[in-house]
Design brief:
The chain has 6 helices and 23 strands. By secondary structure, it is α/β, with parallel strands linked by helices. The strands form 7 sheets. A 5-stranded parallel beta sheet has the order 6-3-2-10-22, covered by helices on one side. Strand 8 and strand 9 form a beta hairpin. The protein is elongated and about 75 Å long.
């Protein structure tokens, strides 16, 4: 049995930074995550992908951001329960919450902060009949290490930010990169679209629009992709790897049964402090929703900061909270 001040469900970047903000107020945190290591999607899906919108870092690899966040919270000694899913949440007689994980670990806390990102998620697969056979045999839905594709022939499918960004990155790594998209317009950031167009003009990316992958060929591993392109007969495209990047299908999992107010598969919150309809339970990061919501790590950091101020008042209603800057000697946990 574990007891803590704040139980954080989700050890992604927002959950990790929340430990720092809680530590400034002398609040102890324990984090639970179904993944086997901290970092959430940063480590699990794209550890080698650069991130460009973290203040103070023109560019930082996702995995490096996780390492920095872990170093930042080291002085506050948070607890971790990893590789276990948050299953059952109950209110106790002494006004605390009791969480039971998928492996029977029990954690008590007066405050719960849900920072579960997209929740439980799985990749959206293209409707290709035999795609399951080629998974891990040439078909990848996420890119963990781009070095895997060095010197290889790669075809990326999709029209969003991930497809564009990875096509740009792989253009300097793979022997050959193609990007196939069903339309001529893209959903991703304009800057990324312009970079892809420029690389296509230079011959570094083979851009195939108004087209889609409709079949896969190869005896034991992937060898060819069948392309259906507008105005042409279907043709075979030789590849070593096929990377369809159509996003993730998020699912809240057991969290959906905790009595929280849900809208569009996300938890509704009050933007005053990111509290939910259940007092003592907060939701921060990509898992919450409110008017004007932006799913950015930067915004999640802001939400966690304000949430902690409210959590302190919830835990200690009779104590006066005195906010101090982290530059004030003695309040940063390092002295």
């Amino acid at each position: 049995m574990i007891q803590t001040d704040i139980l954080i469900i989700g050890a992604g970047p927002v959950g990790l930074f929340t430990v720092f903000e809680a530590g400034l107020l002398k609040l102890k945190c324990h984090l639970v995550d179904s993944l086997g290591q901290p970092g959430g999607q940063l480590n699990e899906i794209y550890p080698k992908k650069p991130i460009y919108d973290i203040p103070g870092y023109p560019s930082i690899l996702a995995g490096d951001l996780t390492e920095n966040l872990l170093k930042q919270i080291e002085p506050f000694k948070p607890g971790f329960t990893l590789g276990e899913r948050a299953e059952k949440l109950e209110k106790t007689d002494d006004n605390k919450f009791k969480l039971t994980t998928s492996r029977g670990t029990i954690i008590y806390a007066p405050v719960v902060a849900i920072a579960g990102g997209l929740g439980c998620f799985e990749p959206r697969k293209p409707p290709i009949e035999n795609i399951d056979f080629y998974e891990d045999k040439g078909v990848d839905y996420v890119i963990k290490d781009p070095e895997k594709y060095r010197g290889k022939k790669v075809l990326v499918a999709g029209g969003g930010d991930s497809a564009l960004d990875w096509s740009i990155i792989l253009a300097d790594i793979a022997d050959e990169v193609a990007l196939v998209h069903r339309r001529t317009s893209f959903r991703g950031a304009l800057d990324s679209v312009e970079k892809v167009m420029d690389l296509a003009q230079k011959g570094k990316i083979n851009l195939i629009t108004n087209a889609q992958a409709v079949g896969l060929n190869g005896d034991s591993v992937l060898k060819e992709i069948v392309i259906e392109e507008e105005g042409k007969e279907n043709y075979n495209y030789q590849v070593d790897h096929f990377i369809p990047l159509f996003g993730l299908a998020p699912k809240l999992g057991p969290i959906a049964d905790w009595g929280l107010e849900i809208e569009d598969n996300a938890i509704k919150v009050n933007t005053l402090d990111y509290s939910t309809n259940i007092p003592g339970i907060y939701a921060i990061g990509d898992i919450n929703t409110y008017p004007g919501k932006l799913k950015l790590i930067l915004c999640g950091f802001h939400e966690g900061t304000l949430m902690i101020q409210s959590a302190f008042k919830h835990i200690y209603p009779d104590q006066k909270l005195s906010f101090k800057y982290t530059t004030v000697a003695g309040v940063n946990g390092f002295e």
